[in-house]
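Posting this for the archive.
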Amino acid sequence: MHQRATVYVCDSHRLVQDAIKALKNAGSDLRHLSVVGKDCCSADQSLNFCEDAASQKRLAAWVSFWHKIWSQLTGDAFLTISGIGPILVAGPLAQPMISAWTNLQFHEEISPLRDALRDWHISVKSISDYESALQAGHFLVVVHGDSSQVAKARETLDSSLFRKPPAQRDGAGAQSGQRH
């Protein structure tokens, strides 16, 4: 059976959580769901991350978000990808990314995300867009499985307005992504 995937780009913790809730409520199997985010600080930021109350609040929200995601999804990883930086992964995408990272760590021009998503039949052009979205601080919600599982996830998230093609977005910036 060939694995397929659909990818949604979310620009906030709330939208990622809403997408997971919509999929769960629709009866989707969360074992086929992954979340990827460049939701961590740089080395310079980490030195002063808890210096003031606002920083402490951001850290608490970050920890709470990822703890909740990792408790719902099986599989996790923290990787540094050339050109993107440090990323966090929850769900089954973590394992192929770790394998790819282990095999490709000496080839900086190759991305473990690119390698893993290409195996799930995501186009190279779309993967480049997703890498750019991660670099900009957005999150990827990835649902993989057979054709019917992916179609059900698309229907659920499209009907919940989690994704519109960029040309059809209302300008609110609440959702973005591309259809596969």
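The CA atoms of residues 9 and 140 lie 5 Å apart. The mean pLDDT is 80.
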